[in-house]
Amino acid sequence: MTTAPRRAAVLGHPVAHSLSPRLHRAAYAALGLDGWRYDAVDVTEDALPGFVAALDDSWAGLSVTMPLKHAVMPLLDHVEPLAGVVGAVNTVLVQPGGRRPVLTGANTDVHGIVAALAEGLAVRGRAATPPAGGRTAVVLGAGATAASALAALAELGCTTPVVLVRSVGRTGGLARAAHRMGVEPVLRPLAEASAALARADLVVSTLPPHAADGLAAELAGGGAGAVAAPGVLLDVAYDPRRTALAAAWESAGGVAVAGERMLLHQAVEQVRLMTGRPGPLDAMDAALGEALEAPAG
Fold first, then answer.
1. What is the DSSP string of 235-292?
2. What is the pTM of this model?
3. Which of the residues 6, 22, 25, 69 is marked catalytic?
């Protein structure tokens, strides 16, 4: 069965740095989807309603990154349950609907986080299936990706994670998302990170690039680094490719999973949703490796 060529894109602001085009284009080539195209489009929150309103049946879907994961939700016809519970959409499916397309919001970030942490657990020699006593977990940050991290950690057996934030007073959205998903996070200031990290089986840092550098210096200088890190860290930032936090975590004896692993796995799921075919993990992983090894500039 042939598939008519369709369009897709990643939207965000800024978005020129995104690796998503490399991943999705590699998937289209591996799946034989000739004529399909995938672009990066810089769209601000103010411009988003106009862009969404102009979508037509030539579109298959959108990848949505910051700062649009919340802003896109009121513009959609449907929001899948997981995305609704998390309160963040990173995938929009565009389906024929008569006079205009039907837009459905989904969240593949949760899938990406679970799969990336499972890779780290495998390196650690532990199964992704939670042990009988559950696991301890820490999340750094309180934004849209942090809500996805709470849902992912719940799948991995962590329903009472510690959430470390710069301002406890600015966590209302995360607290509401946690309530919807039946998770009971313990909010703590980022200044208390060292002790929490030393006890964690799983850690997800959702902080922006370089925002965790101070914490990394603390770990390397003898904070939690004085105690062998027992667990797996996923730092969703991948600029620089090996973050200071990941380097400090590995030096302390833990396993660090690079942020591009989450990006890869969530993109594989996006391809499945947009094309109706299983995302070709190996081809997309190879394209990711090539993109990361390519010289900057």
1. E---SSSS-HHHHHHHHTT-EEEEHHHHHHHHHHHHHHHHHSS---HHHHHHHHHHHH
2. 0.92
3. 69
Q: How far is CA 243 from CA 8, 14, 154, 205, 248, in A?
A: 30, 20, 25, 11, 9
Q: Is 285 noted as a catalytic residue in this protein?
A: no
> What is the three-state SS of 279-291?
CCHHHHHHHHHHH
What pLDDT is stored for residue 225 in this prediction? Answer: 43
Q: Look at residues 12, 137, 25, 6 and name the one whose alpha carbon lies nearest to residue 70.
A: 12
Examine the pLDDT at 218 and tell me if it is beyond 60: yes
Residue 238 has pLDDT above 90, yes or no: no
Sign of the dihedral defined by the CA atoms of residues 235, 275, 291, 21, in that order:
negative
On the question of pLDDT at 156 being above 80, the answer is yes
